[in-house]
Amino acid sequence: MYERISELIAEKKFAVLREELKEMRAVDVAEAFDELDKKNTIILFRLLSKDDAAGIFSYLSTQQRKNIVNAIHETQLNEIIDELYFDDMIDFLEEMPANFVKRVLASSTEEERKLINQFLKYPDTSAGSLMTIEYVDLKKEMTVKEALEHIKKTGVDKETIYTCYVLDDKRKLEGIVSLRKLVLFDADLLIAEVMNDDYIAANTLDDQEEIASLFKKYDLLTLPIVDKEGRLVGIITIDDIIDVIDQETTEDFQKMAAMEPSEEEYLHSRAFSLARRRIPWLLLLMVSATFTEGIIGRFEDVLQAVAILAASIPMLMDTAGNAGSQSSTLIIRGMALGEIELNDYLRVFWSELKVSIIVGITLGFLNFVRMMIFSPADLSVGITVSATLVLTIMMAKVVGGILPIAAKKMKLDPAIMAGPMITTIVDALALMVYFTIATTILGL
């Protein structure tokens, strides 16, 4: 698709391209924007109809949106914003500079300004920042027939009509009813008779991760969002939750790799910005590695007495770090999916202990055989290294399993207790065990 669009722009066949764009899916056209240079991006956007432009605009990256905002006339931009669903408009405004938001607010009605300001004040990761106000509301006194007529009249501009919300005179949520029920049930039945009053709802200040968990647990397509008084203020749809899941997963991966999380796309980030997010954690880990250096220095006489011990240090540290990372990754992911709770720490401890015994003894035995066959080490050194390997693997897996839970207990993100952090902690512990066993067995 990109090749075709690029070819038509290069040949200046704009009329042909305009017609072909009408037949393309919005998300596919949005992907083509990422491949075009800035000049051709603007040309392509200007060829879109007003309705198509709004649909495609909601799929564009932050940088592409900024390029278009800076290049097109304010009147055309306002037309696009008017066509966006309310939650997409809020997401867009959150990405834009303050002076641009002021321009949008200035051209909005008083009611729109009040709503926009209300949404922009919600915390970035809260349910309030994700929700839309474009939903269908019904009264329980309505008949099914009246409800369907109401949906036909007001549903055109709503983000979804598949689930409708039954409100009282004070806009308190009383129940929900699906469009499927309204179509299948008798036209004379009251909404009060067909609505479901056993519904799932969330508060405006609930964290987006909790919202994502609700969608997964109850297989939801939409979720009503209420305030402290139980009044319906908006809904969250499944497409927004998919974006949240992507965002949270990316953030966890970045933290697990010892980086400061960022929503900037990699190819659109400056080298200085990328470096700034990596340096703090690398510096912390580098400084913490001085503990490892101090342990080695403390037992320097042991290494000089039996030089072959030094050759096994990298193997022990790498194996311990990898073992800890395996456990921490599984536990962190389990916690993210809601499979592991804080009160499961004893079960996690016992499970990782059993696994570590099996893994430790297996690798320790194989390492002992390896050293006896391929290494000049004598029996006592082989026993020292292999015994250390067993104990460090056991220790690493238990620590790797428990630390993420401990982090969560302390209101920290469990993802920080992943690869680099676990490796640094386990390395120091592995060396202490190693030299303690060496001095005991070898009598140094």
UniProtKB/TrEMBL annotation:
<keyword id="KW-0812">Transmembrane</keyword>
<dbReference type="InterPro" id="IPR006668">
    <property type="entry name" value="Mg_transptr_MgtE_intracell_dom"/>
</dbReference>
<dbReference type="GO" id="GO:0046872">
    <property type="term" value="F:metal ion binding"/>
</dbReference>
<comment type="similarity">
    <text>Belongs to the SLC41A transporter family.</text>
</comment>
<feature type="domain" description="CBS">
    <location>
        <begin position="195"/>
        <end position="251"/>
    </location>
</feature>
<keyword id="KW-0479">Metal-binding</keyword>
<keyword id="KW-0129">CBS domain</keyword>
<comment type="subunit">
    <text>Homodimer.</text>
</comment>
<keyword id="KW-1003">Cell membrane</keyword>
<dbReference type="InterPro" id="IPR006669">
    <property type="entry name" value="MgtE_transporter"/>
</dbReference>
<feature type="transmembrane region" description="Helical">
    <location>
        <begin position="415"/>
        <end position="437"/>
    </location>
</feature>
<dbReference type="Pfam" id="PF03448">
    <property type="entry name" value="MgtE_N"/>
</dbReference>
<keyword id="KW-0813">Transport</keyword>
<dbReference type="GO" id="GO:0005886">
    <property type="term" value="C:plasma membrane"/>
</dbReference>
<dbReference type="Pfam" id="PF00571">
    <property type="entry name" value="CBS"/>
</dbReference>
<dbReference type="Pfam" id="PF01769">
    <property type="entry name" value="MgtE"/>
</dbReference>
<dbReference type="InterPro" id="IPR046342">
    <property type="entry name" value="CBS_dom_sf"/>
</dbReference>
<keyword id="KW-0460">Magnesium</keyword>
<protein>
    <recommendedName>
        <fullName>Magnesium transporter MgtE</fullName>
    </recommendedName>
</protein>
<dbReference type="InterPro" id="IPR006667">
    <property type="entry name" value="SLC41_membr_dom"/>
</dbReference>
<dbReference type="InterPro" id="IPR000644">
    <property type="entry name" value="CBS_dom"/>
</dbReference>
<keyword id="KW-1133">Transmembrane helix</keyword>
<feature type="transmembrane region" description="Helical">
    <location>
        <begin position="355"/>
        <end position="373"/>
    </location>
</feature>
<comment type="function">
    <text>Acts as a magnesium transporter.</text>
</comment>
<feature type="transmembrane region" description="Helical">
    <location>
        <begin position="379"/>
        <end position="403"/>
    </location>
</feature>
<dbReference type="InterPro" id="IPR036739">
    <property type="entry name" value="SLC41_membr_dom_sf"/>
</dbReference>
<dbReference type="InterPro" id="IPR038076">
    <property type="entry name" value="MgtE_N_sf"/>
</dbReference>
<keyword id="KW-0472">Membrane</keyword>
<dbReference type="GO" id="GO:0015095">
    <property type="term" value="F:magnesium ion transmembrane transporter activity"/>
</dbReference>
